[in-house]
Amino acid sequence: MTRADVQALDREDLFAPLRNAFEIPEGVIYLDGNSLGPMQGATRRHVADVVSQQWGEGLIRSWNTHDWIDLPTKIAGKIEGLIGVPKGTVAVCDSTSINLFKVLAAALHARPSRRVILSERNNFPTDLHIAQGLIDLLADGYELRTVATDELADAINDEVAVVLLTEVNYRTGRRLDMAELTRLAHAGGALTIWDLAHSAGAFKVELAAANVDFAVGCGYKFLNGGPGAPAFAYVAPQHIKDLRQPITGWFGHATPFNFVDDYAPAPSIERMRVGTPPILSLAALDSALDIFDGVDMLALRAKADRLFEIFSSVVVPECPELELVTPLAPNQRGSQIAFRFEEAYAGVQALIAQNVIGDFRTPDIMRFGLTPLYLSHEDVWQAAHVLVKVMRDRLWDQPAYRVRAKVV
Questions:
Q1: Which of the residues bear the PTM N6-(pyridoxal phosphate)lysine (predicted)?
Q2: Residue 13, annotated ligand binder?
Q3: Does the 3-30+296-402 domain belong in CATH 3.40.630.30?
């Protein structure tokens, strides 16, 4: 594919008008939105207003005058539309890890005769760590059982209480069949928890259609809510009434401002909340989500597939030392492309020095997010050619590029 070809695609790009909403430094091609989404100008201005006016001038009055108290519910409504669930089933609060702890504990409580949490062997570590920590805390014979991806279906049996999976693998970008694995879990009497960290905002998610029981996700990747943005948790309507989540803080109380001693959970999804909402970070997420208003998620995904095809068509033939680990079939991958390379960390550092920002995942993965809201087809074409140059000229082969930073 030539530069003229990709420029022709950009002239027809439905999302081209949204590019200017993002404040990406001049000359930088940003392929790391699947790790941290970039800032929007509207978000910067809104947070500045919340700091200077709502907090600075309104002070504590802003809980009412600027409706801080209902900001999590407002944001939840925006996320519900992105993940295909009914109103009143998403809580925006805490981090992905804390929300996972809550829904996993609730799911285990709902299956008291079973003791196995089933997950994928290469699931994101924090999901496995949370499960391990909860098992240690409960000290009641629970087991975390991990299997290879292709063994998941056969591993679901009458011992399994919960099937805990991430829809899109953080290293390879492989996408699991959510609907089918949920169906198999239910047929075996188990509940499901899906991690949407690399799904929400990347493509059309249909949790209700797949009959998912619980889900969690973060606000700082494809949703562009800023570093450490609040996360969200989904609970299917049939589970909300009897949901027993273990962190019973005052904002999950039925009447938090009555300040009563005994805990009584809210009758709604609000029982998933714990402590005082972090208004500044919520304000950033609230503003960032506005860009999805009117976005056709199927068209967004179609563009992501074109970006994948452009990147792979340039890199794969020219860089035999890079092993493509992301599935070629569009329905089997998320919005990223990843390669295995022995010197992956140095390769990514060399790219960053050329103003192409991707990221590294241990031990040997070079990973690139394909985020259609702000990446043009030409951006991706240029980035692919820079990667080819880095590999062809061995630009990665410098001692400085092998020195690991604290954050990789």
A1: 221
A2: no
A3: no
Question: If DSSP states are collapsed to H, E and C, what string results for 33-78?
Answer: CCCCCCCEHHHHHHHHHHHHHHHCCCHHHHHHHCCHHHHHHHHHHH
The encoded tokens of residue 178 equal: 């959510």
Establish whether 381 is an annotated binding residue: no
The predicted-structure confidence for 274-321, as pLDDT tens digits, reads as follows: 999 999 999 999 999 999 999 999 999 999 999 999 999 999 999 999
Per-residue pLDDT band at 1 (split at 50, 70, 90): confident
Sign of the Cα torsion 268, 95, 369, 26 reads positive
* Residue 97 annotated as lining a ligand binding site: yes
Contact present, 146 and 192 (Cβ < 8 Å) = no
Mind telling me the catalytic residues?
124, 195, 220-221, 367
Q: What are the residues whose beta carbons fall under 8 Å from the beta carbon of 236, sequence distance 6 or more?
A: 89, 207, 208, 211, 212, 213, 214
Placement of tokens 């589970």 in the chain: 239
> CB-based burial of residue 290 (10 Å sphere; 0-12 exposed, 13-18 middle, 19+ buried)?
middle
Concatenated DSSP letters for 295-358?
A: --HHHHHHHHHHHHHHHHHHHHHH-TTSEE-S-SSGGGB-SEEEEE-TTHHHHHHHHHHTTEE-
Contact 224, 371 (CB under 8 A): no
- Provide the whole-model pTM: 0.98
293-303 tens-digit pLDDT = 999 999 999 99
48-292: CATH class: alpha beta
pLDDT at 49 over 90: yes
Q: Pinpoint the residues of the chain covered by CATH 3.90.1150.10.
A: 3-30+296-402
Say if residue 125 carries a ligand binding annotation.
yes
